[in-house]
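Dear colleague,

Following up on Tuesday's group meeting, I ran the structure prediction for the two-component complex that the binding team flagged. I've pasted the input sequences exactly as they went in, so you can double-check that nothing got truncated or mislabelled along the way. The structure tokens for the whole assembly follow below. Feel free to forward this to whoever is handling the docking comparison.

Inputs:
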Amino acid sequence: MSLIKIDPSLDLVLEREIDVPVELVWTAWTTPHHLKEWFVPKPWTITSCEIDLRPGGAFRTTMRSPEGQEFPNDGCFLEIVEHRRLVFTDTLLPGFRPSAKPFFTAALLLEPAGLGTKYTAIAIHGSEAGRKTHEEMGFHGGWGTVADQMVAYIKAGKVAN
Amino acid sequence: MSLIKIDPSLDLVLEREIDVPVELVWTAWTTPHHLKEWFVPKPWTITSCEIDLRPGGAFRTTMRSPEGQEFPNDGCFLEIVEHRRLVFTDTLLPGFRPSAKPFFTAALLLEPAGLGTKYTAIAIHGSEAGRKTHEEMGFHGGWGTVADQMVAYIKAGKVAN
């Protein structure tokens, strides 16, 4: 039973059905060389990705703008339920150390739906201001675009089952 | 394998050997009606305690000063390894929601040592300023006193095995 509870005043939710199986979505999300191919809207790129798939384990990516500026993201995993639920946060660094720039917790919820997947991505904030900032940063467009990129990547046969 | 790594510039550590068994220490720490009896230096008291022993589950206490002022603490558990390791934080509320006042993560590490327990409590901070503030709040005296209170409570036969 997940303890994740959506609060519409604080959280942002992207929910859609996608026609790729849950196991491949899981692999695309949890394997660095796959995640690097789709996790940021193009033409941005991911230049590095570290995934230590344990509670408290590192989840680090570096995003690179088309102009060449790099933006590191540092956080850790909180909850891992294979093929169903992946929770991570930037409020804690690896080893559960409090971070200097706490912003949000993310929960990815997956459910089989026919041959595809019900795909729910939730950004959990501590304040309405946090939610609003994230909305203005383009949460819906950004997370929607990368979901599209992930589906295209999986359909191109790049992720082995 | 724990991902907890002590950084002496950021963290505070209380380590001692206590002559009560690891199973009773675990019960004293994870049962609200036991924890209320020893978790704050007397004559302060704990007026309420909620423990939902799951990752993301609530760990809430309210401390009451001798003058009657109440201080709520709200956080969640991160890692639970029965009789060995309990990790919790105030940087995330139940359901992993970022908190408004992130301060520290605590790790309690227990190891059997003869008939007793090697008892290690670690306060993990994100900055040297956080460590210093916690030191000045009286981390060592406070956590040491409550460890003494817990041992006395267990030796008085209050915690069933």
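The first strand of chain B starts at residue 11 and ends at 18.

Cheers,
M.
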